[in-house]
Amino acid sequence: LRSHVRPCTLMPQAPLWPIGSPHTLSFLAAVLLLAWAGLRLWLAARHIRHVQAHRHRVPEHFSAVITPDAHQRAADYTLSKTRLSQTEALADTALIALLTLAGGLHILDIFWAQLLGNRGTAHGMALFASVGLISLIAGLPFDLYRTFVLEEKFHFNRSTPAQFVRDLFKQILLSLLIGAPLLWLALLWIDALGDAWWLGIWLFWLAVNLLMALLYPAFIAPLFNRFVPLNDPLLRTRIESLLARCQFSAAGLLVMDGSRRSSHANAYFTGFGRFRRIVFFDTLLDKLDPDEIEAVLAHELGHYKRHHLWKTLGLLCVLSLVFCLALGTLLNSPLFYHALGVSTPSKAMGLILFALWLPVVLLPLRPVFSALSRRHEYEADAYACANAPHRALERALLKLYRDNAATLTPDPLYSLFYDAHPPAALRLARLP
Ligand SMILES: [Zn+2]
């Protein structure tokens, strides 16, 4: 791209890294990557300091329910998780740097191009499979550590090594059976669409997401957990009367065997329209009394009644359109590939580069998404308080904070970036 023979002139020499050259852009990308890693590490370090500083005193509002022991356990659990996230940040950074800036993808690209004889769809699929496999292997030690060391140490883990291996194989099988054909279609479609391919990819992405939202609860989730109808007659009656009061009809009230893998408790809504169902973790039903279960459900209904799902989806649609537009521009520019260590452009390679670097670009936007999500949580809490027994939500939240060992004292800036739910103290203070 650049002549290596520099003519001898009397004019000033061009700078070593002229703007717009692949070298300048590689340098800028490296700076961006380091800034990303630095921000993640710094936020985590702040969080660790803050939680440590508040480890010895239970915040006032909570001292009636949460004992000093439970508070310290939550602090230690948070510290362990945050330290692991720091190691993960370093590993992520190393992986992105090795694959892109250091030329890992370039080597894979040449290997597959020579083996397959061209850079067609098969080449693209092989590239995706290679990167998928590398990411899987790179993430595995962290998953193992999280499950069998960290969660085990705090008595949350209920998974066995056999279960872990089974889950892993199911995930790989699903990627091969569902992910691979979809990817193959997407690559073919990109070729067929010409210049408007980025718009096509956006529509494809929307369609796949909608399809998964429909298929997941009915076909995929049952591969990993058992779902049985909620059959406690007393609880059922109470829940049905709450649903009637809130004018909500659900296709099913199900209990999921969350206890198979972990003792963390939760509840969620899934599916659309008449496939809509409400899922309680068995661990949640064990811990909460009927009033509290009603309050948790009313909170979930609040999300539905305030159209949070649609608002979030709308935002995602707009944002993904912007990113696909950026994708369309970047993937047509050879500089994009060269800057990230790849010499021969191809659409599949461009998609991989984009996907690898997307988290780096998205981190500064996280506070916006988190703030939106926290606003939705406040609205759902207000709805729950208006429709469930008096103060039941507060009691449920306190129990869940305690039993899930959630920290009550997060670092405010860390929370601003990462917390999809409001920090405990603010959340309880806002309850009517
Ligand atoms: Zn919520």
Quick synopsis:
With 432 residues, the chain is mostly helical.
Q: How would you portray this structure in words?
A:
- 70% of the residues lie in helices and 4% in strands.
- The protein has helices at residues 22-53, 68-101, 104-116, 121-153, 161-193, 197-224, 233-245, 282-287, 290-305, 308-331, 334-339, 347-362, 366-387, 392-403, 412-418, 424-430, and strands at 227-229, 252-256, 267-270, 277-281.
- With 432 residues, it is mainly α.
- It is built from 16 helices and four strands.
- Helix 1 (22-53) runs antiparallel to helix 2 and helix 3 (104-116) crosses helix 4 (121-153).
- It binds zinc ion (ZN).
- The site of zinc ion has 4 residues, from helix 9 and helix 13.
Secondary-structure map:
Layout: H1 22-53, H2 68-101, H3 104-116, H4 121-153, H5 161-193, H6 197-224, E1 227-229, H7 233-245, E2 252-256, E3 267-270, E4 277-281, H8 282-287, H9 290-305, H10 308-331, H11 334-339, H12 347-362, H13 366-387, H14 392-403, H15 412-418, H16 424-430
Parallel strand pairs: 2-4
Antiparallel strand pairs: 1-2, 3-4
Helix pairs in contact: 1-2, 1-15, 2-4, 3-4, 4-5, 4-12, 5-6, 6-10, 7-9, 9-13, 9-14
The protein binds zinc ion.
